[in-house]
Write a structure and sequence with these properties.
Blueprint: H1 4-14, H2 19-22, H3 25-29, H4 31-48, H5 60-67, H6 71-105, H7 109-138, H8 145-150
């Protein structure tokens, strides 16, 4: 059975007029959506720049034994990584030269910026494969960027150079 109070409450809800009916700038600007999207972007970026924790810690020799690799396999894979580094390096150079051509002869700044971005992506792949080659060449996992940049691994105190 419907009571008179229920009908009045329903009518009040239908014809409810508050300040938000005519003046609600946060809804007009989509503040809640912007806040949620900003939070999502921040979470994605923080996850992107937070280094992943390694699942296992092992030496190069332990990894070779676990994967049952021969010296020939290691040499072949390292040479393949070096070849990939050279190929990606050449692609980066071609992208850079193409960008220079586009800005010099066609005056297209947007194409130049796009070519620079492509060259940077190719250089990132060049670094990745050369870093893997470097680790295999020096038979050390977990090399640092500084070690790669210097181009050599300093022997630890207990080892022969």
């Amino acid at each position: 059975m419907i009571r008179e109070g229920d009908i009045l409450m329903a009518l009040r809800d239908i014809f409810k007029i508050t300040r938000k009916t005519y003046f609600n700038p946060t809804a007009w600007l989509g503040y809640d959506d912007i806040k949620n999207q900003t939070s999502d972007i921040w979470n994605i970026l923080s996850a992107l720049f937070t280094p992943a924790k390694p699942t296992r810690t092992e030496t190069f020799d332990q990894a070779v034994q676990r994967l049952e690799l021969s010296e020939q396999d290691i040499h072949k894979t390292s040479q393949t990584y070096l070849a990939y580094a050279w190929v990606f390096g050449m692609f980066a150079l071609l992208a850079l030269l193409g960008g220079i051509y586009l800005i010099a002869y066609h005056g297209s700044g947007y194409a130049f910026v796009l070519a620079i971005v492509c060259a940077i992506l190719f250089l990132a792949q060049t670094f990745r494969y050369h870093f893997w080659f470097f680790q295999m060449k020096h038979r050390k996992l977990g090399c640092t960027f500084d070690e790669w940049w210097q181009g050599k691994i300093k022997p630890s105190e207990g080892q022969q150079p």
